[in-house]
C-alpha cells in the first residue's frame, strides 16, 4: 500500500508521511508513505493507492478527487488536528477505514446485476 500525503509546499506532509510510515511498520503493515505537493500531484498519483490531503488543502479537495478517480485512487481529507497525531496511529486508522469503504464499494459494484 502506497500512501501519498499532499500539502501546499511539502513540509507538513513530510511529518505526516513519516508518522504514518512508522505506525504502519509498528503494526507489521507493508505500507509506504511519502510526501507530495499540489503541484507534484499528477506525477505522484501514479505511485499512490491512497492520497491523504492536508486540512489546509480542503479548497483543492474536489479537484484532487476528480484527478485521483481517473486512477482509482482513494482520497481522504485529513482532520484539522492531524498534526496532534504524533505517533501516526490515528491517521493510519483513517487510511485503513477509507480502504475498507473503497473495498466495500468495489464489492457492491461487482455484485450488482
From TrEMBL:
Keywords, sorted A to Z: Kinase, Phosphoprotein, Phosphotransferase system, Sugar transport, Transferase, Transport
Modified residues (Phosphocysteine): 7
Transport among keywords: yes
A Pfam family it matches: PTS_IIB
Residues spanning the signal sequence: none
Database matches in PROSITE patterns: PTS_EIIB_TYPE_3
PTS EIIB type-3 domain residues: 1-105
Highest taxon above the source species: Bacteria
PANTHER family with a match to the protein in the record: PTS SYSTEM N,N'-DIACETYLCHITOBIOSE-SPECIFIC EIIB COMPONENT
Entry protein name: PTS lactose transporter subunit IIB
